[in-house]
Specification:
The protein is an alpha/beta fold. It is 24% helix and 14% strand. The protein folds into 2 domains: 45 residues, no CATH class; 212 residues, Alpha-Beta Horseshoe (Leucine-rich repeat, LRR (right-handed beta-alpha superhelix)). It has an 8-stranded parallel beta sheet. Helix 7 runs parallel beside helix 8.
Length: 273
């Protein structure tokens, strides 16, 4: 079995990965690692394609199992999900640390629950700035960070195409003495900007999405999304959201709007192209 041509070996392993989900890696795929050492690299490519750290215990277990980058399978990860900011420490961003080892991540997902709203969260996630130069998609609960810090993180990925933000209401600066003004009035500062050529999803979940829209309108290089999906419940969001549509008018291919504002009526939405 170990003498199979590489093309056949790769095809066998690839056929077993489709049913893989978080915490439910197919037994057949795991068993491939036991066949031969020559099977291990291709199998790891699928076994570690999706990594999810929800608790400090999860992360500590990972670091004990893979104490150094030379034996870590983090380079195979294409999707990285961080469930809580408590698992992130400065040690992880050091040379050879676990954060830097995830250098092939294409999709980054940050949080989703109230527990994200923790003091110092913006400091923790500053460690993720540009950690993987090939990130193309970010899904984030926008209530985890003040918008200014969140967009600094987003703009650190030059190849970013897709952005999915839920709970788009701003949270206060958490360091107690910061008086730089509300993030919605702050122009994003960056020497470069992502491509922003994919899909943009903004969902208010009861809060205003206008501040996030205004920051997107201010990014260097502009935005060029092909697909827009908006959901808002605040009347004051209508103007900035329509400004986003206008900004993307030359590249827009599809538009979805869900608006639950009393007294507001959207007459008709037609496919842009």
């Amino acid at each position: 079995m170990s003498n199979l041509p590489c093309e056949i070996l790769d095809h066998i392993v690839d056929l077993l990965h489709d049913s893989q989900t978080y915490g439910q890696v197919p037994l057949e795929l795991r068993n491939c690692c036991l066949v031969s050492k020559s099977w291990v690299p291709r199998t790891r490519r699928h076994l570690f394609a999706n990594i999810y750290f929800d608790t400090a215990k999860n992360l500590e277990s990972w670091k004990r199992t893979f104490p150094g980058p030379s034996i870590s399978p983090a380079c195979y990860a294409k999707r990285l999900c961080i469930g809580r900011p408590q698992v992130v420490t400065a040690e992880g961003a050091e040379a050879g640390g676990w954060i830097a080892s995830f250098s092939s991540v294409e999709h980054l997902e940050l949080g989703g629950q109230e527990i994200w709203q923790a003091r110092g969260c913006e400091v923790a996630f500053a460690l993720f700035h540009g950690f993987s130069p090939v990130v193309k998609s970010i899904r984030v609960n926008a209530s985890i960070l003040p918008f200014r810090h969140l967009f600094n993180l987003i703009l650190s990925f030059p190849l970013l195409e897709d952005l999915d933000m839920t709970d788009c209401y701003d949270v206060p600066i958490s360091n107690g003495g910061d008086s730089d003004g509300p993030p919605m009035s702050t122009t994003v500062q960056s020497s470069s900007s992502p491509a922003f050529t994919g899909t943009l999803k903004l969902q208010g979940e009861g809060g205003p999405v206008g501040p996030a829209a205004r920051l997107l309108l201010s990014v260097p290089g502009g935005i060029h999304f092909r697909k827009l999906s908006f959901a808002w419940t605040q009347k004051e969001d209508i103007s900035p959201m329509m400004a986003l549509v206008e900004k993307c008018s030359h590249t827009l291919e599809s538009l979805y709007v869900w608006c639950d504002v009393p007294g507001t009526f959207i007459r008709h939405l037609r496919p842009h192209r």
